[in-house]
């Protein structure tokens, strides 16, 4: 009798994501899901498309998608075939062993394919957690309408995102942002410095140039040129550079040598390196929000290829109010963004120096961070997400 009831409560969840940040969000969610499932007497099996972090939680990976991601039309071309191949393998596996529910995390175009497959072929509920940022740059709502078609529930992390997707007819629950909890666990400045062996009075700038291969070419040289100007004005500055993927190390070392920048390279631990810093010089991305919640001033930049920029401007007529998640939260300019033609090392360095030297500039940014934090919801977002998914089981 006992074994029969055990069989009854075994459930399978398939999670699909890509890139470094998706893998990280996936891993955090998986830990919460296991915790909640145990409390409810459900035996969980989780399979997925993701990366090493998800695999480390005991998830069966049907394919590794962390290295196959990019931003921009031209930049995406080399990744189309690998993405299709990984997904085809996953679909074959899922047809034989269907999940009870499918969870999609960000990763816009690839996850649209998985969403339709889950709905039409597997005929199982689809939950979208951390939806693509259509609400920021949507130009014809085509993707949003697609998401509305296959998504049973969308778990929104930004208030604006919830409002936008609701208007599109999607079933939305605003859960708040998982970073509110996660960043509260990161050691404070003094403790972070102790862990990294940084003196209390050292002037530290943390560089975050790349989580995608393309950014080593498009963003990192600009960051290093700006760092060189900062170094010339403040010779006692110390640079720290956490790697988002260990395999970037040779390329990063080569670029540092080329631009004659002495930086301490560390693996992972990016949050500790942010917490210990006086300033962060970063590419645009999820990490900007981590930096804001850790209360460290930052300067943000981004650049894609000239062709991609041209397509965005003239073909797609893309008009972005902001690109950094920090500014998108309240649609307010809290952190300076240097995008495309404006990503000039001199201008970036000048703004960075102002934040390092001028207490008023720092304070203005920190006040902006307070408003951002207030808009990201209460603690406990990740448990709300896990509960919402387990309700479907």
Structural overview:
It contains 20 helices and 13 strands. It has 393 residues and is α/β, with parallel strands linked by helices. The protein has two domains: 2-176 and 378-391, Glycogen Phosphorylase B (Rossmann fold, 3-Layer(aba) Sandwich); 185-374, Rossmann fold (3-Layer(aba) Sandwich), CATH 3.40.50. A seven-stranded parallel β-sheet has the order 3-2-1-4-5-6-7, with helices on both faces. It has a six-stranded parallel β-sheet with strand order 10-9-8-11-12-13, with helices on both faces. Helix 2 (19-39) crosses helix 20, helix 5 packs parallel to helix 7 and helix 18 crosses helix 19. It is globular.
How many domains make up the coordinates?
2
According to CATH, the homologous superfamily of the largest domain is Glycogen Phosphorylase B
Stretches where pLDDT is under 50 for at least 5 consecutive residues are 1-8
| Strand ordering within the main sheet | 3-2-1-4-5-6-7
Helix content bin: 40-55%
Number of strands: 13
State the CATH class of the largest domain: Alpha Beta
The first-to-last residue Cα distance is 22 Å
**Quick check: average pLDDT?**
89
Radius of gyration: 21 Å
Classify the secondary structure makeup into a structural class.
alpha/beta
Number of helices: 20
- Write down the CATH topology of the largest domain: Rossmann fold
From the spread of the alpha carbons, the general shape counts as globular
Please indicate the percent range of residues in DSSP E strands (runs of 2 or more): 15-25%
Largest sheet: 7 strands, parallel
Q: Could you say what the CATH architecture of the largest domain is?
A: 3-Layer(aba) Sandwich
């Amino acid at each position: 009798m006992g074994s029969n009831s055990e069989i009854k409560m075994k459930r399978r969840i398939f999670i699909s994501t890509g890139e470094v940040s998706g893998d990280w969000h996936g891993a955090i969610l998986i830990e919460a899901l296991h915790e909640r499932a145990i409390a409810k007497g459900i035996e969980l099996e989780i399979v997925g498309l993701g990366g090493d972090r998800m695999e480390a939680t005991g998830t069966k990976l049907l394919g590794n998608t962390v290295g196959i991601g990019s931003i921009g039309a031209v930049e995406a071309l080399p990744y189309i075939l690998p993405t299709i191949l990984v997904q085809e393998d996953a679909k074959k596996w899922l047809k034989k062993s269907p999940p009870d529910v499918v969870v999609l995390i960000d990763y816009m175009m690839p996850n649209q394919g998985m969403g339709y497959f889950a709905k039409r072929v597997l005929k199982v509920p689809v939950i979208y957690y951390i939806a693509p940022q259509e609400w920021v740059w949507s130009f014809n709502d085509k993707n949003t309408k697609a998401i509305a078609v296959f998504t049973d529930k969308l778990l929104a992390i930004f208030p604006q995102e919830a409002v936008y997707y609701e208007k599109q007819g999607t079933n939305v629950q605003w859960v708040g942002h998982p970073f509110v909890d996660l960043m509260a666990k990161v050691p404070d400045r003094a403790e972070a410095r102790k862990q990294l062996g940084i003196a209390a009075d050292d002037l530290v700038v943390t560089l975050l140039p790349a989580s995608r291969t393309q950014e080593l070419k498009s963003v990192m040289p600009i960051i290093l040129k700006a760092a060189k100007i900062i170094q010339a004005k403040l010779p006692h500055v110390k640079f720290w550079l956490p790697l988002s993927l260990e395999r970037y190390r040779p390329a990063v070392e080569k670029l540092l040598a080329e631009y004659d920048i002495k930086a301490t390279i560390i693996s992972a631990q990016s949050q500790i390196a942010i917490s210990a810093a006086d300033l962060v010089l970063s590419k645009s991305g999820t990490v900007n929000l981590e930096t804001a919640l850790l209360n460290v001033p930052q300067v943000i930049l981004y650049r894609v290829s000239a062709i991609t920029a041209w397509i965005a401007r003239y073909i797609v007529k893309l008009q972005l109010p902001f690109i950094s998640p920090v500014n998108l939260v309240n649609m307010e300019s809290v952190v300076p963004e240097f995008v495309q033609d404006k990503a000039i090392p001199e201008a970036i360095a000048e703004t960075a120096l102002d934040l390092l030297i001028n207490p008023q500039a720092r304070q203005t940014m920190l006040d902006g961070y307070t408003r951002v934090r207030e808009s990201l919801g209460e603690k406990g977002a990740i448990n709300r997400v896990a509960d919402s998914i387990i309700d479907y089981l």
